[in-house]
Structure formats: C-alpha cells, structure tokens
Automatic annotation (TrEMBL), chain A:
Organism: Paenibacillus oenotherae
Full protein name: Thiol reductant ABC exporter subunit CydC
Keyword Iron applies: no
Compartments it resides in: Cell membrane
SMART domains reported for this sequence: AAA
From TrEMBL, chain B:
Name of the protein described by the UniProt record: Thiol reductant ABC exporter subunit CydD
Domain ABC transmembrane type-1: 16-298
Sequence ranges assigned to domain ABC transporter in this UniProt record: 356-592
Alphabetically ordered keywords of this record: ATP-binding, Membrane, Nucleotide-binding, Transmembrane, Transmembrane helix
Subcellular location field: Cell membrane
Membrane topology of the entry: Multi-pass membrane protein
Pfam families tied to this protein: ABC_membrane (PF00664), ABC_tran (PF00005)
Principal cellular location given in the protein's record: membrane
SUPFAM superfamilies recorded: ABC transporter transmembrane region (SSF90123), P-loop containing nucleoside triphosphate hydrolases (SSF52540)
Gene that encodes the chain: cydD
Top-rank lineage group of the source organism: Bacteria
Length: 603, 598
C-alpha cells in the first residue's frame, strides 16, 4: 500500500497549494449553481411581496446575475488550472519512469516478453491524470462544499443542519462505500475475464490459419461467444446496480426536498424564517444534491486505476535492486569517472577484448548460461558466433558490454574490466541488432543519434557510405523527411542501413552485430552484409549469426552450445577438420564445395 | 446521426418504448415542478404546513416517477445495445474467419483484437447513450417549452431565443477547436508519441550512449506537449463553457425578468415559480448530449470501423469459385484412425493419391495493380515433393496461399481430387486434407499436448507423445515440469523459433493429412537447428504431396519437382539436375549463392 502511494503522495505534498486552489475553484463553481437557484427563489418570492421600491430586490437581482456568470467562468478556469497542474505532474512522472527504466534498458526485452509492456506503461502514466481529475479533485471539492453547507445551515438551525448533513452524507459517503463494496469483486472478475478474452481472441486471430484448416473455427466462435456471454451477464449485473444506485440517489434528493419544504414551512410558521426564504432553500436543494450524485461513480473508478498503479509500482520496486547480481554500477565518483574517461579514450584506438575463463548465471538457482569461456579477440579481428537459442550468445554480448559482471573469470577490453567502463562503453562498443529502433523524428536526426555534434556533411557522408544518400535525396523533404513517413517506404534492409549509418558516426573500435539480417531475403542479406563488412573495415567485429553466409570473411568462427564453445577456428580450418561444419556449410551453399564438382560435371 | 441507426433490428421497438417513456417522463417533470411550486406558494401565502401533505406527496411521486422512467429507459437501451453489439461482434468474428489470416496480418492483430473487444464495448455505450439522448432532446425541451409558454409567454421567448444561440456557439467553438487541432496535428502527434517512442527505443539509445542525456529531452518535449495540449484545451473547454454560460445566463434572465414583473404585479408567484423550476429542465437534455459528445463520437467511429470490416467484400466464395471434386475418400480412414493409433502406423498407411490441377490461375490484389500470380497452369499428382523457389516478390507465398485456400484467385480454376471429403460446411472441404506450416507457426496459449493435437483434438496422450518424439520435441517435453501438459504460448512458457517449428511439425505428424504446405519453414532458424529440422521434415514428407516455398536452395536436391517463379509466372520447372542443365533462372540462383560476398 505504501509503495503504491509513491506515485501519488509525493505529488500531493509538492503541489499542495495548487491542488488547494483547484479544489477551491471547483467548490466555488459548484456552489454558484446552488447560489443561483437560492437567489432566484429568493428574488421572485420577494418580488411577489410587491415591495414599494424596486431597489428592495436589487441585491438578489445582482446575485442572480453574478452567480449565473461565475458558475460558468469559474468552472472554465478550474478545468484549465487543473489540467495545467496535472500535465506538469505527468511531465515529471514521465521523466521519473524513464529514469527508472533507463538503467535496465538492456534487460527490458527479455524481462517483459509478453506484449508491448512499454507502451502499456506509457499509457499507465497517462491514466494517472484521471485519478486526479476524475476522482480526487471532485471528491475533495464535494467535501469542501459539504462542510461549508453544514456550517452555513448550522447558523440557522442545528437540527436542520444535522438532517442536511445526513442526507448529503448519504450521497457523499454511504452510497459510494456501498457501491464500492458491492461492485469491487464483480469489477475485478469482469476485468480478469476480459483479459482472458483478450488472450483467447489473440489466439484466434494469430492462429487463424490453424483454426480454419483444422475445421475447428465454428467451434471456436461458439466457445468464444459463450465466454463473452458470461462476461456480459456479470456486466449486466453491474449496470443494473448502477441504475439502482442512481435511482436511490435521486430518491434521496426527492426526500431532501420534501424535508426542506417541511422544515422551511415550519420555520416560517414560527416566524423564524422570512417568506422568500422558503423558495430559496427548497430550490437550492437540487443543485446542491447534484454535486454529490456523481461521487459514487468517481469512487467506483478506483479499482480501474489499480492495475496501472501496480505495474508502475512493480517497475519502481525492480528499479532499485536488480536481479540480485551483476548489473554494472551506473555512476562513478568524480575521480573514478575521470579515470574511466581516460581509459575509454585509450580504448578508442586499441580495444583488444579478452574473455578469461568466464562463467555466468543469472541467479544461484539457475543453470550457468556461460561456462568457463575463454576467448581473445585482438583489435580488428572479425569473429562470427553461432549457436542455438539459449546457447549463451546474448549473455556473451551483455558481458562484453559490461551490462553483466561475470560470476567467475574476467572480461576485459584493453586490459580494463568491461563493466568498469559503465556509461562510457558506447564509446568503445556499438551494436547493430535485429530491430534497431528508428525514432519518430527526421531521418537526419536518426542518423545523428550516433554522434550529436555531427555536421550535416558528416551525416550525408555516413548515409552515402551505407548507400542510402541517393534514396534519401529522392524523398520530397530529403534528410528532413519524418521517419514515420519514410519508415513506410523503407524496407527492412534500408532500415538496417539507417542504423548502420548511425554506427558509422558513433565510430567505435568494436562493433557487435546481433543477427542484423534475420528476416531479410538472401539478396538483401548479401548486399547488406557486404556494405557492413566494407564500411566497418578495421574495426573489431563480433557477429552473432544464424547462417554461414559470409563466414569465409571472418577470421574466426565460434560455435556455442550450453554456454561452452564447441567448435572454433577459421573457415578453412573448420572445413578441413570438421565434417559437421561441412554439412552445415552446405545448407547455405548447396553444391559447394563437395557438390561443386557435380555441378560442373553436369554443366 | 440517426439514419445509420435505423438498420439495426429491434431499433424501432426500442425507440418507440423510449419515446413513450420519455413522454411519461416529461409529464412527471412538469408534474413535479407544478406540485413543488404549488406547495411553496401555498406556504408562502401563509397556509398551514399540515394542509400541504397531499401536494408534497404528489411532488414526491412525480419526482420518483421521473427517475423511474429514466431507469427504465436506460434498461431498455442497455438491453438493445448489448444485443446489437453482441450480434455485431458475432458477425465480425465470422467475417474475420472468412477473410482469413492474410487480412488479419494486413490489418494488424492488435488492432483487430482491440476492435473486437474495446471497439464493441465503445459501440455499445454509443447505442446505450444515443437512444435516450435522441428521445430526450426531441421530446423534453419542446413540451417543457410549450408548458412555459402556456404559463408565461415572455419567459418562453427568452428560453426559445437562448437555445439556438447556445447551439450555434457550441458548434462554432467545436469547429474552431477542431480546426486548431488539425492545424497543429502533425506536431501534436509527434509530441504525444514521443514518450512511448523513447521507451521503445530505450535499448537503441543505450547502445548509442544517448540514454542518460535523453531524460532531459523527455522533460523538454513533455513541456512542449503540455503547452500544446493547453492551447487546445483552452478552446475545447470553451465549448462546454458556452453551454454552461448561456444556460445559467438564460435561467438568470428568466428569474430577473419574472422578478421585475412580479414587482409590477403582472404575474403571480405560482406560475413564476413553476417557470423557474422548469427552466433548467429545458436545457438539461442538450447539456447531456454535450457531456456525452466524446463518448458517443468514439463509439460511433468504432461501430463504423467494425461495419467496414463486416462489409469488406470477400473475393468471392472459395467453394463456389473452386470447383472441387471430392472423388476418392482415401485419406478418410486415415483421419479416423489417428485418435486411436500411435502415429507411426498410419504414417506408413496406404499412399493417398491426391492430385491438383491449376489452369491459368491468376491473383491480382487491386483491380488496377499488377498481378502477383499470372496464368499459372500445373498438374501435379501425389505423393511428390514440390519445391517452389524464386526471388522475393516472385509470388512464392501467394501461390502457397492459393493452394491452401487463404487466397482466392481472381482468375482461373483449381481442382483438387482425392482429398478427404466432409469437414465443416461448404467452404472448401478439401482444406481438411491440408497441413500448413508457416515461417512462424502460432503457438496457442494452452498446453504443449493441446497445441500438438490442435488438428486432432481427440488424439490420445500416447499419440501426442509419438508425434512429439518424431518432431524432436521429446527432449524438451522431458525437461518441462509437467511434461507435455506444460502450458506454453502467450500465457505460459515461451518457445524459441526452432521449438515452435517443431510443434508445427508434430501437429503435421499427428494429423497425417495427405498434403503439406510449407512457407519458408527454416530460413529464420540457426543453422544447426535448421539442419536437424530438415532431417525430421524429410521424414514427414514421405508418401505425401508436399509444397515447399523457400529461399533456401539446399532443399531443392531433395525435391522431386521444382517450380521456379519469376515475377508471378512460372519461369521453368523440372528436377534439380534438369534445371541446372538448362542453365536458366535456377542455375543463376544457384551460382549466385556460390559466390562469396563482395
């Protein structure tokens, strides 16, 4: 509960006065509606007494006009101020969420496999504005009005003030509480079942080919409709209660009106109240009670916010300590940081990499993902890494980037432990992976992300090197074309080229290629690979790949399985000594070299 | 907004019921105002409280009746809305299945799922709101106004004049707000998208060493976004401000006007009070329409989006178009045996003799567009292994789609014979003879066993285990805590690409269908997995009619017959050796892969 408040309480404290103003304005706007009817009632009854002088009703006339205008004006101001403050809070929350996620960036994709969690989190932050605008502010304003009215009535008659307090309290507190109690469980059930429907429907749409071919789709639709009907029944129950709730609320209003009539009439008979006040009090009951009617609805929303809170809270909790071990400390102390800057600058020219007897596992309970691995990669060396999924390739890359600290052994770049480079590692190691993100800005901006201070000419040179210049120039806005427009025109290979241009500007001695050609057709793959190898001449390349196309361009090929290196050597060595390698190589180059003879024989 | 509503069944009766309820409600509103005004003016005139019990009771009854009417209206609208939206969803689902998997992948799975769940709910709220609102705005203001005129003409005139002013302002401001939005739409879109874009690109930013610095960028863009939003809101809120302002001003004017004439003795207290009580009621229906505007708009748009999919033209009926001849139900007994026997038995069962004839089959996506398949004529008799190759865009996947029945050719005919008959309905009984293995088979969110027996829901665990072993899944199953009953897919343990492919393979082994379609089944897998899977797939291919579309030429020597596609047409056909000897397109593709990178 306490941690849940951490996305709420601090903001209430920090923005207390702004909140107070918003709530105050809200209360005034709502009260104005009541005051309008009050003064109107007073005005016409007083006029009905036919005073000698029109000035006798001057005050109520002014009151009526003023309240008629203030209600609308204040309400407008209140809404604007409310949104202004809330949007400012949201800005802060976005930065906060970003700062929490940023250190875990490299682990996000493996941790949140299901769905687009990042998109969901961004929505959660947006959702939080409704907590304030739809629940907290209206509830607080109603409380203020409640207190104000009870106190005001108390100056007339304590007995009636208590009666009014009970009526209003019923709408303000009792009915919302009953409502929350009654609907809480059902709401949760509906939500749970709906998320089940979501999964089921996703299964249906993604697995449609299978449903159709298996001839089971009619059965599926039937079963889906049954599930929908079950949710619909629960939902109908909730809606039925909502209708009852409104009806009960309105009946309360009706009784309150009659009570007020009875009280005002009695007071008038005893000469405690003047005649015009009867209409004034009675007519004001409607708008005042209207203030409290929507509260049950506002309170019923609370469970809806809960999942958003829970997700944000989970992220916050995880942000603190990671999975127990291994995440590199982000910041360094001043002197330390300067030293690392020097180390990074030194590694900029020469960055030999060494894995010395490295083992790693994510926790004590899990198996080793990398075992006793030793590998030495001199500057400019090109190495291909192959293996099935789960062979330890991605752990190897994370160790190299210093994102994981090896449980045993050491990973060094230019003699310094990889993890020690911390935030400076992108100056030494750059990464081209399967799906580099292209941001929703211009093409030029996307390329310039490699080095922010790159000139336009440097950006163009980079694009030229990856053979995109001509294509970009042909776009109507050239380099200023927004990516989301260009993105549609860019093929998979071209998107990788944009990312490659970025890496050229980043200009690091070591480049990690993490399956950059998966999903591309063979022609595009070969063209992209030759561009990559041509433009990255002289850099150390660590290329995780699933095919052997281009393997002969590597100095060394490493096969991994179960965290260990199972086969290692240059293409020529492996071809000569490992029949298994020959078999695999033949898949990529059918006919070569064993079949080459046959090919030429036939031809 | 009402016209498109009229086509839903049951709308007339629900509108009639709502109209009658609204009439009664209006009567109750007037009655409540009447008796309340009467009680107040009687008390005002000094009559004793005790004599007012009767009119107070009548007020209370009228007031209660009014809200009971509202409840009944809502109930009727809800019932109609849920029935209509449920019917619409059913239609949508049926249609999606008829449009097939290609349509879904073009539209986006997420979009469709959201539309079927959230969209239908929004559409329901739209119906639920629009029916009482329509009746309310049509009936209540008119009758209330008539009664006000009858009581006091001048107040009637004030109210009459305010309504058009109010509506004109509301519409004008609404238009201005929309224009303002549209003017800055582009910058607004990118601002609102910036945060989620940053989160999605976080890993990339980290690789580029920009992720720390980016936090200040988020703060800056967030502030810009806030400023842009506030600019829009200032105008957007004006619309409800106008609504509020003119209503309140109108009520105030009525009150002041009544007051002044009361002073002059031109009107009595009772009618004046009644008018004053009724004045807010006159505006209430319009204000409610304003308040629900966005909800109704969203729901309406969702409804239109759903209707657009329902109205999407089917290319045409596959069953009608493709004259199917179901001649010999050879494979039928194979299917019925599958549940009882371990798969190994029927893998070796009688050879099904399936044959396929395509005569000048063409596929054209858009009426004007280029053909993605052109004039394909083939005759193939199974069992045989048919390789389909060609450059990207040559039409390999389209051909597989046509053969599997996911796409209907725009011209030509396709005849299957020797396929098992029956299965469901008339939409292509021949489909029940086909196993389809795509590049990324879908893993359902259920147990491993249920995934494997997807095509054979009645298959025994023993048969499932047999198929799993044949597909190389025995080792995986052995490692799972619950063996083959472990939950996999979206709601359970995720599988790697190779494992998913093996599940598809196990499905095919278990199903034992005579025809197997494969669309690029191994290109995305690591080469060791590919090597092993190839061995197992070749086992599956025995005694079957297999169509394998791929870029991976290593499959070709294992094929009995190769179809080389180029630009939607058959460039050449033959065996691996024949095609090499021809030195044509196939030979070029082979030699291109011989060369290293350059």
């Amino acid at each position: 509960m306490k941690s849940r408040e951490s996305w709420l309480a601090p903001y209430v404290a920090r923005y207390f006065w702004q909140f107070a103003i918003i709530v105050g304005l809200g209360a005034i706007a709502l009260l104005s509606a009541g005051a309008l009817m009050f003064t109107s009632g007073a005005l016409i009854s007083k006029s009905a007494l036919r005073p000698e002088n029109i000035l006798m009703v001057y005050v109520p006339i002014v009151g009526v006009r003023t309240f008629g205008i203030t209600r609308a004006v204040i309400h407008y101001i209140e809404r604007l101020t409310g949104h202004h403050v809330i949007l400012r809070i949201l800005s802060g929350m976005r930065v906060r969420l970003y700062r929490i996620l940023e250190p875990q960036a490299l682990f996000l994709s493996s941790r949140f496999r299901t769905g687009d969690l990042l998109g969901v989190l961004a929505d959660d932050v947006e959702q939080l504005q409704n907590v304030y605008l739809r629940t907290i502010f209206p509830a607080a304003a109603s409380l203020v009005i409640y207190a104000a009215i009870v106190i005001m009535l108390g100056t007339f008659d304590w007995g009636f003030a208590i009666a009014a307090a009970l009526y209003m309290g019923f709408l303000l507190i009792v009915l919302p509480c009953i409502s929350l109690l009654l609907t809480h469980r059902k709401n949760r059930a509906v939500k749970r079942e709906r998320s089940h429907l979501y999964q089921k429907l996703t299964d249906a749409v993604l697995g449609m080919a299978d449903w159709t071919l298996s001839g089971r789709h009619a059965g599926f639709i039937r079963s889906y409709e049954e599930d929908e009907a079950a949710v619909a029944r629960k939902d109908a129950g909730l809606r039925s209660w909502a209708r009852w709730r409104v009806l009960i609320g309105q009946m309360t209003v009706g009784l309150a009106v009659v009570t007020t009539l009875y009280w005002a009439g009695g007071q008038y008979e005893q000469q405690l109240l003047s005649a015009p006040m009867i209409a004034a009090f009675v007519l004001a009951v409607f708008p005042v009670m209207d203030v409290f009617l929507p509260l049950s609805d506002a309170v019923e929303r609370i469970p809806q916010y809960r999942s958003s809170y829970d997700r944000l809270h989970d992220i916050t909790a995880r942000g603190g300590g990671d999975d127990g071990n291994s995440v590199a400390a982000g910041g360094h102390s001043g002197a330390d940081s300067r030293m690392m800057k020097d180390a990074a600058a030194a590694a900029k020219g020469q960055a030999p990499i060494s894995f010395h007897n490295v083992s790693h596992r994510y926790s004590e309970a899990e198996p080793w993902t990398v075992r006793e691995l030793s590998l030495h990669i001199p500057q400019g060396h090109r190495i291909a890494v192959l293996g099935r999924s789960g062979a330890g390739k991605s752990t190897l890359l994370k160790l190299l980037q210093g994102a994981l600290i090896p449980g045993r052994g050491a990973v060094t770049i230019n003699g310094v432990s990889a993890a020690q480079y911390g935030e400076d590692i992108p100056r030494i190691v750059s990464v081209l992976n399967q799906s580099p993100h292209l941001f929703d800005t211009s093409i030029a901006h996307n390329i310039r992300l490699g080095r922010r201070d790159a000139t336009d000419e440097e950006v163009r040179q980079a694009a030229k090197a990856v053979m995109l210049d001509e294509m970009i120039q042909s776009l109507p806005l050239g380099y200023d074309t927004p990516m989301h427009e260009a993105g549609r025109r860019f093929s998979g290979g071209e998107r990788q080229r944009v990312a490659l241009a970025r890496i050229l500007l980043q200009d690091t001695p070591v480049v990690v290629l993490d399956e950059p050609t998966v999903g591309l057709d063979p022609m595009t793959e070969r063209e992209l690979l030759s561009t990559i190898f041509r433009t990255l001449e002289g850099r150390t390349l660590i290329w995780v790949t699933h095919h052997l196309v281009g393997a002969d361009q590597m100095n060394e090929i490493v096969f991994m399985d179960g965290g260990r290196i199972t086969m290692q050597g240059s293409h020529a060595e492996l071809m000569n000594h490992h029949p298994h390698y020959q078999r695999l190589y033949r898949l990529d180059r059918p006919g070569a070299p064993a079949r080459e003879k046959r090919l030429s024989e036939i031809v | 907004m009402g016209r498109s509503l009229m086509k839903y069944s049951g709308i007339r009766s629900v509108l009639l019921v709502t109209a009658v309820l609204t009439l009664l409600q209006t009567a109750a509103i007037i009655g409540a105002a009447y008796w309340l005004a009467e009680t107040i003016s009687a008390l005002f005139a000094g009559e004793p409280l005790a004599r007012q019990a009767w009119s107070m009771l009548l007020f209370l009854l009228a007031f209660a009746a009014r809200h009971v009417m509202t409840t009944l209206q809502q109930k009727a609208a809800y019932r109609f809305a849920s029935a209509t939206s449920a019917a619409m969803r059913r239609e949508l689902m049926e249609k999606l299945f008829r449009l097939g998997p290609r349509f879904s992948s073009v539209k986006g799975t997420g979009n469709l799922v959201t539309l079927a769940l959230e969209g239908v709910t929004m559409f329901r709220s739209y119906l639920e709101l629009i029916i009482p609102r329509m009746a309310g705005t049509a009936v209540i203001p008119a009758i209330v106004l008539g009664y006000v005129y009858w009581l006091d003409v001048r107040s009637g005139i004030i109210l009459t004049l305010t309504m058009p002013i109010l509506i004109v302002f509301m519409v004008l401001i609404g238009l201005a707000a929309r224009k303002g939005m549209e003017a800055q739409w582009e910058s607004y879109r990118s601002l609102s998208n910036h945060f989620v874009d940053s989160l999605r690109g976080l890993e990339t930013l980290k690789f580029l060493g920009q992720s720390r610095a980016h936090a200040s960028m988020i703060a800056r863009v967030s502030d810009k976004y806030r400023a842009a939003t506030m600019r829009t809101l200032r105008v957007a809120f004006l619309s409800s401000f106008a609504l509020d302002f003119f209503t309140m001003l109108s009520v105030a004017s009525v009150a002041v006007n009544l007051g002044l004439r009361l002073v002059n003795g031109e009107i009595m207290l009772f009618p004046a009070l009644t008018v004053l009580i009724l004045a807010p009621e006159y505006f209430l229906p319009v204000r409610m329409v304003g308040a629900d505007y966005h909800a109704t708009l969203n729901g309406k748009e969702a409804g239109e989006a759903i209707q657009a999919i329902i109205d999407e033209p089917l290319d045409d009926e596959p069953a009608r178009m493709l004259k199917q001849k179901v001649e010999t139900p050879v494979a039928e007994n194979v299917g019925s045996m599958a549940g009882a026997l371990p798969f190994a038995r029927y893998a070796a069962a009688e050879k099904p003799t399936v044959s396929l004839t395509l005569s000048s089959v063409s596929v054209q996506h858009e009426a004007e567009g280029a053909c993605s398949l052109k004039d394909i004529s083939l005759h193939i008799k199974g069992p045989a292994r048919i390789g389909i190759i060609g450059a990207s865009g040559a039409g390999k996947s389209t051909l597989i789609d046509v053969l599997s029945g996911f796409k209907t050719p725009s011209g030509g005919t396709m005849n299957w014979s020797g396929m098992p008959s029956g299965s469901e309905g008339n939409d292509g009984g021949w489909r029940s003879g086909i196993t389809y293995i795509p590049q990324q088979p879908y893993i359902f969110s259920s147990s491993l066993a249920d995934n494997i027996r997807f095509y054979m829901p009645d298959a025994s665990d023993e048969a499932v285990r047999g198929a799993a072993a044949a597909a190389g899944l025995a080792e995986l199953a052995g490692q799972l805590p619950q063996d083959i009953h472990e939950m996999i897919g979206g709601g359970g343990r995720p599988l790697s690409g190779g494992q998913a492919q093996r599940v598809a393979l196990a499905r095919a082994f278990l199903g034992g269908r005579p025809v197997v379609m494969l669309d690029e089944p191994t290109a995305h897998l690591d080469i060791e997995t590919e090597y092993e899977l190839k061995e197992q797939m070749l086992q599956l291919f025995r005694n079957k009619l297999v169509f394998l579309a791929t870029h991976r030429l290593h499959w070709m020597p294992d094929m009995d017959h190769i179809i080389v596609l180029r630009q939607g047409m058959v460039a050449e056909t033959g065996t691996h050796e024949q095609l090499l000897a021809r030195r044509g397109v196939y030979y070029e593709m082979m030699t291109a892969q011989q060369e290293g990178l350059h």
